[in-house]
DNA sequence: TAACGGAGCGCC
DNA sequence: AAAGGGCGCTCCGTTA
């Protein structure tokens, strides 16, 4: 059973169950809660516009179909990546009407200040676009997989909203102590923290002239002035230079990053009531990985993990998928030898034997195959891979070839990479053409693996969400890692749920396969204790 | 003054 | 000879 939903102003809305007329309700949350008992699939234009208000009213839903995300997936599949994919845009295309631009991004947001907001989609529009999407899904090469993709992406939208609602535990006091220890007390506006200033002074003294260590250009000039020209100011380059200014400069760069990225100002904006609430963007990365549009949740430095502490009497279950991408490749390529190795807990160790018994060599070979790496020993190791694991090798080679030739590649479930730009087509027939072709080949080579890994992770989360015992909550997700916040006495049950979810996700995507996808799940009081 | 690209580096 | 994929975020310094 599907129920089309449109949220109206003032907490009201319109509901349209399959085969029935739309009906307006004064209090949407209450009406939705009632219907949820029948476990319908909620169909709406955009989860971000409807679900947060429902969550705020205490309503949680099992499943949905997000028209905007689905439209993006379908357009991508149809080779029309990047066209407007809101429900309104989809509706307009259906009727040959002018297609409204998606409004996101700072420029578009500003424009809407002066233009009239488009009216919210109505339930009839929602139902019509949904029907059209279901038709289009039936015409892709493997509708069953694509349906799974749409379900997983939509579940991701629910989860992202729920995680935003719940927030990740974040101890402001521990954060402040950490910052003060590293940087000195919080400075008054416009000043550098004491320890940062002291390092800047040491750098100036070492070079004999003050300069702004935040400026790469000025760093280059400073090294030049002491007779030590540098090609770049990257840490690993600077590290090699023998000069008294190097140590304080590197220390400055490290601390300055913490100060500006995850310092007090950041906390003022993103942390409230002991919770860090970032804004996740489902499918924000072309490969289907999530992105964030604020808070930088996916780039929290490891030193900050000690700030993430479970509430009193609660625990954090932190689980990450081990060696996810090579396992995904093994499952997709149907490479018997690689799949057998991927049946082991340590895939790289299981692979070591053909690579001279060196686990590191096996790892480098796999990474080079998936990333298109060619430096150092990679060519030699790739030759071994080609011989011993021909199907896996051929799988990524085919993806690379498709990219080089300007064709599209797809993930296991059907997420499609963007087509090459007009600029690329120009470049590729010019003098620098081989370089452009190789770059795109590396992109598509990686896409098929990374995008399928993202699908596995999404499926894992969707299954896990359904298995979690109340009041356990997913509170963080980062590519191949999930975090659950739960009462301490539920920890064991949650760890078991993670294992089961990994198994079910594997079955959903790949069916029977010898490849295992082990999750390392640990119950900890503090995130920093998980690694 | 705002916008933008580049540099650099955090995460996977 | 060397050649790694994907992001977000902040700073700088230039340009519009």
Automatic annotation (TrEMBL):
GO molecular function: DNA binding; DNA-directed DNA polymerase activity
Gene Ontology BP terms: DNA-templated DNA replication; double-strand break repair
Top-rank taxon, per record: Bacteria
Keyword Transferase part of the UniProt annotation: yes
Catalytic activity: DNA(n) + a 2'-deoxyribonucleoside 5'-triphosphate = DNA(n+1) + diphosphate
DNA-directed DNA polymerase family A palm domain span: 301-490
Keywords of the record: DNA replication, Nucleotidyltransferase, Transferase
Name of the featured protein: DNA-directed DNA polymerase
SMART domains per UniProt: POLAc (SM00482)
Organism: Streptosporangium album
EC numbers, comma separated: 2.7.7.7
Pfam families given in the database record: DNA_pol_A
Class of the enzyme per the UniProt entry, highest EC level: transferase
Transferase found in the keyword field: yes
SUPFAM superfamilies xrefs: DNA/RNA polymerases
Gene3D superfamilies from the UniProt entry: 3.30.70.370, 5' to 3' exonuclease, C-terminal subdomain
NCBIfam families: PRK14975.1-1
